[in-house]
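Sorry, explain these tokens?

***
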Amino acid sequence: MSQQITFETELRTLLKTGKVILGSRKTIKALKSGKLKAIVIASTLRTDIRSDIIHYAKLSGIPVYEYQGSGWNLGTLTAKPFMVSTIGVEELGDSKIMEVGKSIT
């Protein structure tokens, strides 16, 4: 019996084994300096911030993945007691998130 690989499962693996930046300000700063391999945004991310991230990601050729839950769900997934709307991925670790996720950029 094979275990189904989901975006959420790979996101958990990424958080355990990879290197990430939490928060939209830090993510945009790292994105502009070319330090990211991918970005995960919550489906409830503010439209203006979402537009900025997608714009800079397209310029840099970096994939952006939308997590179908809210910022609160993403915060829970990252084991933080606050909302997390954006995750910047510096190192993928053992995660296959880029294989299972559908990029919106």
Observations:
- Strands lie at 19-22, 38-42, 64-67, 86-91.
- DSSP finds five helices and four strands in the chain.
- The mean pLDDT is 92.
- The longest strand covers residues 86-91.
